[in-house]
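Late entry, evening session. Most of the bench is empty. Finally got around to the prediction I had been postponing all week. Sequence below, unchanged from the version circulated by S.P.
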Amino acid sequence: MESKPQKMPKVAKVKNKAPAEIQITAEQLLREAKERDLEILPPPPKQKISDPDELADYQHRKRRAFEDNLRKNRSVISNWLKYAQWEESQKEVQRARSIYERALDVDHRNITLWLKYTEMEMRNRQVNHARNLWDRAVTILPRANQFWYKYSYMEEMVGNIAGARQVFDRWMEWEPDEQAWLTYIKFELRYKEINRARTIYERFVYVHPDVRNWTKFAKFEEQHGFISGARKVFERSVEFFGEETMDEKLYIAFAKFEENQREHDRARVIYKYALDHIPKDRAQELYKAYTIHEKKYGDRTGIEDVIVSKRKFQYEEEVKANPTNYDAWFDYLRLVESEGNLDSIRETYERAIANVPPTKEKQFWRRYIYLWINYALFEELEAEDEERTRQVYRACLELLPHKHFTFSKIWLLYAQFEIRNKNLTMARKMLGMALGMCPKDKLYRGYIDLEIQLREFDRCRILYEKFLEFGPENCVTWMRFAELETLLGDTDRARAIYELAVNQPRLDMPELLWKAYIDFEVSLGETEKARELYERLLERTLHVKVWMSYAQFELASADESNVELARRVYERANLSLRGANEKEERVLLLEAWREFETQHGDESSLNNVIKKMPRRVKKRQRVQADDGTEEGWEEFFDYIFPEDEATKPNLKLLEMAKAWKKQQQTNDEDKEGEDDDDDSNSSSES
């Protein structure tokens, strides 16, 4: 027989796969089950016991159930507690006591078990049993504070004060936490045992040596009228903590105690002692309290001392946060100097100068170097210690990295200090050393000024020669050297110096030098030499200011034809600038020339200059970027001079030709428009 193929069961097809309109969540199912109380079993029916046999049967069944639970798991203390509480409810105290003892054999370190056991004994007024239990509990578990609290409380409630005190004494032998000691003290105070409480405090502050506890001890003495005792407690606490572990809270409490006793001088001494010995970062509250005290009871000097101390603390914080904040050091030093304590000022200066800038860049040393300068000035002017001042200057000069940079003011100040102390040889030696190690313009000038004041002109000449060898391009040096020779009456040397100067290949400010040279010749009345200098200068430059100065010079000269000479200079200048195509400078020249002719010329000469004046026109030019692309147009003003137009006669003809060509183009366009209109009219007629 052929076996039929096994048919697969048909899978039910879901026609509508869209979600239902109302969605039911698991939370909703649980909430409905809770509301309908589906899982809550009905309570068992109440059973009324009517005779002793039925009671005995009930107790037997319950005890067997409890014992079965205990056999299943002896370590579950809740089963023991339920069993014992049930026996107690049946007035079977002895049985309950037995159950508790069995439970203690299982877990004698369970605090709840001991508490329930003793509470049962106390409820049933079994005081001796409870006392024995407490005694056993505190012996086995002496660190469980609950036992000690309840034990002492029970003894106090039954009126056994001596027994309670004995319990506290046993407890204190274990050195419990602070609250236990305070509880013992309150217990003694309830029975007016002040001396006993003081004895407990004596032990307490050594077991728990905290500032808060010493303060409580002192307040206890103060509250009970023992003022001297409170002061002794504070003094003992200060000795106990010493200077290494000083706390501002203790001194604030001590000072406020003295303030309450109107001992303001004592309070002030306490505040000052604390401020001198406690680190500044841990004395903020102390500063506030001291300030308030001085504002209440101090005089003006005391208040100022407080403010100074507070500002000192602020500066200390600033320099501690950033030791290279030299502005903070300056303010701090100014404050310390106002107090006048030399040792403190020196110590602060030494701390300040110890913060050397970390890099060898001059910009970071500019503020720092003034610390050394102020230190040296303080030693010289305030402390009047010559040797220390010299040491400060030398230490500063040794510290400076002269190969990278130097500070001329330090060398000069040191030299001036030595001169003030009549030590000229040392001053010259130091300045010579400075010029050898790190020559600078300021050093040369300072050294030269010093020798001029000493009237050592030969030395000045030597120094100027060295100075010019060091910087031959410095025009000011040449000018001052020549001025020195002029003052000394040696005009030939001065003129030679000027000649050397103007022949230098490179100068930083040649215009000043030439002006000084010309003024020098003018002051000597050498007009021809001054004129020669102007001509030599014009060979080098054609600047408009040189021409204008030349014209003013000619005008101011004593010659009778000075106006004509000045006019010639203006004419030469105009021709020169016209050839150089310097339009703006030429305008300046013509304006000056016009003003000159207005004051010193006649009408024809003035009209001649006015004809040369340009007219200003606005023009446009293309603007090109750096990469050559065009960025648009910009407007600018240009000057058109009549002289330039006269030299270009074809310019006007070209403009007229352009205008004619433009007119012709417009005429041709109009004619083409008329022809187009005629053609359109003829086509419409056809």
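Two things to note before I forget:
The longest strand covers residues 630-640.
The CA atoms of residues 36 and 109 lie 45 Å apart.
Will write this up properly tomorrow.
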